[in-house]
Amino acid sequence: IMEAKRESESRGELFALRVDMYFVFRVDRLIANRLDSKKLDRDNRIKPATDAISKLLLIDDKYFYAGFSEKVTTENKENECTIIQITQTSPRTLQDVMDQMKKSLAI
């Protein structure tokens, strides 16, 4: 990651990362019954996870421009975990987002 950062900066480009997170919980910890979810906040896990990634990789979290997070179910307690995928990205503009939304509506 640090090499990619140096390369981006040497080309005069802004360095940005996308951090996707999947929080895997045993199904009975997430779902109370067929129609209701239990309170197990995904949002409360995002900041501690990004802080830990930042510390582990020795990189400021200001470079985390984008990301996706999702609660995922498993049948086994042994499979509970957090899966993190980090990829280099380019910061998007408002116009990029508006164009994406228009394409989504056109489907």
Structure description:
With 107 residues, the protein is of the alpha/beta class. 37% of the residues lie in helices and 32% in strands. The chain contains 4 helices and 6 strands. The protein has helices spanning 2-10, 27-30, 43-57, 94-105, and strands at residues 16-26, 31-33, 36-37, 64-66, 69-74, 81-89. Strands 1, 4, 5 and 6 form a 4-stranded mixed beta sheet that branches. A two-stranded antiparallel sheet has the order 2-3. A hairpin with a 2-residue loop joins strand 2 (31-33) and strand 3 (36-37). The termini are far apart. 6% of the residues are buried.
Please count the beta strands (DSSP E, at least 2 residues each). 6
Helix content: 25-40%
Rough shape? flat
Total number of helices = 4
For the sheet with most strands, the description reads: 4 strands, mixed
- Find the structural class using helix and strand composition: alpha/beta
